Amino acid sequence: MLFDLTGKTALVTGASGGLGQAMAIGLAEAGARIVAVSSSNCDATVAAVREIGGTIGQISADLSKIEGLEGVFAEALAMFGAVDVLVNNAGTIRRAPAADHAAKDWYDVIDLNLNSVFFLSQLAGRHMIERGSGKIISIASMLSYQGGINVPGYTASKHAVAGITKALANEWASKGIQVNAIAPGYMTTNNTAPIVADQARYQSITDRIPAGRWGSPDDMKGPVVFLASSASDYMNGHVLCVDGGWLAR
Ligand code: NAD
After folding, report:
1. Measured between alpha carbons, how far is 79 from 34 in angstroms, rounded to an integer?
2. What is the domain count for the chain?
3. Which domain holds residue 28?
């Protein structure tokens, strides 16, 4: 019962594939209605959720355009009447050495990975404060802790995600809202396809993971259900690492 999400609505961004799709399906398996938001279509996620008897709607939006977020949130509210859980998952990465990092690459990453996370959380937070409850879960990264190489904008954005998770938790914990984050380790998705394609790099990363394997999107299901459910009601401002032990090493 602690993990039951029946009657709850979860808005999941970037739910067309990868980690967002798996988390949307996991939340639906726990009983939540899903609002899947993405710039690419979420048809596969919609089909997967309906196949298990779940309820889901989708919204197409480029979340890096901050001026559109209010409309997106209003559309989500109109769909099922409330948003109990917000999962800020949509993210992007640009790989180029710092000395050559183009301004556009920097801003594209910051607009989506940071600015949309803050402003969507703000919209959800206002709604949840009124209702006296809610869960906000943002997807951080190992690069919320480490510097990475050739991804300065991504690293900056993911350190910031960890920071605003704590900042929002401090303000909203007393209002019945739990704000937390999940920091995935190396997971096989589109996002990491270029690393997987580099056999030497892929192997050296795998060798360093205590679990001895990369994560799969399904490894995100349990942690996101936990943070979306009443099982985590006394957790605030925490960044939960789902990394096969990467950071423990
Ligand atoms: P992915 O590329 O497979 O999926 C990204 C999702 O975000 C897709 O649904 C895509 O359509 C959506 N998206 C991209 N740009 C968008 C925009 N402008 N507006 C709306 N939606 C947009 O990536 P993923 O690996 O599943 O990553 C999901 C999250 O997890 C990201 O925040 C990423 O930084 C984070 N993450 C991934 C890994 C990993 O190993 N894959 C590790 C740590 C953190």
Report:
1. 10
2. 1
3. 9-243
Q: Where are the strands (E) in the chain, listed by range?
A: 9-13, 33-38, 56-60, 85-88, 134-139, 177-184, 239-242
Which CATH number do you get for residue 113? 3.40.50.720
pLDDT one-digit tens code per residue, 7-29: 999 999 999 999 999 999 999 99
pLDDT in tens, 186-202: 999 999 999 999 999 99
What is the tens place of the pLDDT at every residue in 101-128? 999 999 999 999 999 999 999 999 999 9
Q: CB–CB of 239/181 below 8 Å?
A: yes
Token pair belonging to 240: 């939960």
Q: Does residue 3 form part of some domain? A: no
Ligand 1 contacts CB of residue 63 (under 6 A): yes
How high is the pLDDT of residue 149?
Answer: 94
The Cα–Cα gap between 168 and 77 comes to 21
C-alpha to C-alpha distance for 134 and 233, rounded to whole angstroms: 10
pLDDT band at 203 (very low <50, low <70, confident <90, very high): very high
38 CA → ligand 1 middle, Å: 10
Give every CB contact of residue 75 below 8 A, 6+ residues apart in sequence: 59
* Alpha-carbon gap, residue 201 to 194, rounded angstroms: 10
Query: Which atom from ligand 1 is nearest to the alpha carbon of 65?
Result: 18
Residue having the nearest C-alpha atom to atom 3 of ligand 1: 18
pLDDT tier for residue 233 given thresholds of 50, 70 and 90: very high
Instruction: Name all contacts of 46-51 with Cβ < 8 Å and 24+ positions apart.
Output: 48/21, 49/24, 49/25
